[in-house]
Amino acid sequence: MGGRGxxxxxxxARAAEEFGGVVSRSxxxxxxxxxxxxxxxxxxxxxxxxxxxxxxxxDLAAAGVDPVxxxxxxxxxxxxxxxxxxxxxxxxxxxxxxxxxMTGFTTDAVHVSLSTSxxxxxxxxxxxxxxxxxxxxxxxxxxxxxxxxxxxxAATWAVSDRQAALLVAMPVQxxxxxxxxxxxxxxxxxxxxxxxxxxxxxxDVCDGxxxxxxxxxxxxxxxxxxxxxxxxxxxxx
Length: 237
Known about the structure:
- It is a single chain.
- The protein has two domains: 2-69, no CATH class; 74-223, no CATH class.
- The protein is mainly α.
- The protein is built from ten helices and six strands, in the order H-E-H-H-E-E-H-E-H-E-E-H-H-H-H-H.
């Protein structure tokens, strides 16, 4: 038994490197770590069960952390949110943008989207959404919405109009989002609680306004019927 215990802890540790120190039971099964193996480690307080699917390779209670609240690390927390939220959950909105590499914006909440037929299992600091359109980013890694659609969702779900503008400008400025594709996708959106606002912001950002200051000037020009400013452009001599 001792030999198997050493083996499974080593296997689990290597598997969890990809997920920030947590691992799903399905991943463990792929590595021949069984349900009984997991139960033995949890009973010995070497691992912690974080819901139906997620295992943390450590004892959160011993560290003074309530296991119900999930892991603290951003990568581990994102995986935990996806695994535990419900069938087919993926990161969306600002959480998907951060997972795609957006910097300069932090949030305590993890935003996930689910299909309309999925049941959400409530989790602390995890915000569920059931958007009418979901497009998953191809490839491996964290399941997340493609950046262009995530940007539109982030702006729609923002807590203020100012934050909505910021969450359109930042991913375009940081080249995580292709501006023409963003504009094309926006034109297919039939309903938005911020339709008028985002019409102007997305148009301005795709026209080259990549800061809140530039967006403010463009908005004032529209408001007072003034000509739109000429955008900055890279020139080569």
